[in-house]
Specification:
The chain has about 220 residues and is of the alpha/beta class. Helix content is about 40%, strand content about 10%. The protein is built from 10 helices and 6 strands, in the order βαααααβαβααβαββα. It has a 6-stranded parallel beta sheet, sandwiched between helices. The protein is globular.
Length: about 220
């Protein structure tokens, strides 16, 4: 019988968006805002600000700015930070990470401060080979620098790695860097105007391991 390992070939590394692809930050933002409607508007504005500003501006400042711009009081970002450790993984995420870990390096590339980004990454029970934040890279995705810093830390080329996005803003950056991308579009976000399509789009992460396992044909 042919060894199944000969028919699959994983990338050397899989990089992940943290707060949208792996963790359900949407629910925490909704609770902090007082309603789903307010939380979604706030989160959407935050995404627009972070993915649009390029150079790093304090993450916590952008969260507060987004709240103000959608009419939320300062108590909303205060509640978000106070309850930060309530962030929970989407269904299937921990299983997928554990299945991938024996085959490839795992890394986080997150639009977050060092302090909050590392606390969030530590909520997932896996051994990260790299955790790169926007603060550390001095730039927010989709600027190429955060992705490139993670690849440097992992000592892999873009062609040897894959990226799991949480929103389509990431595709602007992964296209420039040359990372094949799986979009874990859990809540059905629209493709941002002008964003290159991902290789795979799914409302679940269950297909990630199979996709990664056929990254290159042996």
């Amino acid at each position: 019988m042919k060894d199944s390992s000969s028919t699959s070939s994983f990338p050397k590394a899989v990089l992940f968006d943290l707060l949208t692809a792996l963790l359900d930050s949407w629910s925490l933002w909704d609770r902090s805002a007082g309603s789903k409607e307010a939380g979604r508007a706030w989160r959407a504005e935050y995404l627009r600000l972070t993915y649009g500003c390029g150079r790093y501006i304090e993450y916590e400042t952008l969260v507060k700015q987004a709240a103000k711009q959608v009419g939320l009081p300062s108590s909303a970002p205060d509640a978000l930070e106070a309850n930060w450790l309530e962030l929970a993984p989407w269904d299937g995420v921990i299983n997928a990470l554990r299945q991938l870990q024996p085959h490839c390096k795992l890394a986080v590339v997150t639009n977050c401060s060092d302090r909050l980004g590392r606390r969030a990454a530590a909520l997932l029970p896996v051994r990260w080979d790299a955790v790169v934040t926007a603060e550390e890279a001095c730039a927010y995705k989709p600027d190429p620098r955060p992705y490139q810093l993670a690849l440097e830390r992992l000592n892999v080329s873009p062609e040897e790695a894959a990226f799991v996005a949480g929103s389509s803003y990431d595709m602007f950056g992964t296209a420039v860097v040359g990372l094949r991308t799986y979009w874990h579009n859990r809540i059905g976000l629209p493709l941002v105007d002008g964003a290159p399509p991902p290789e795979i789009e799914s409302d679940g992460i269950d297909g990630l391991v199979a996709w990664a396992g056929n990254f290159t044909k042996g």
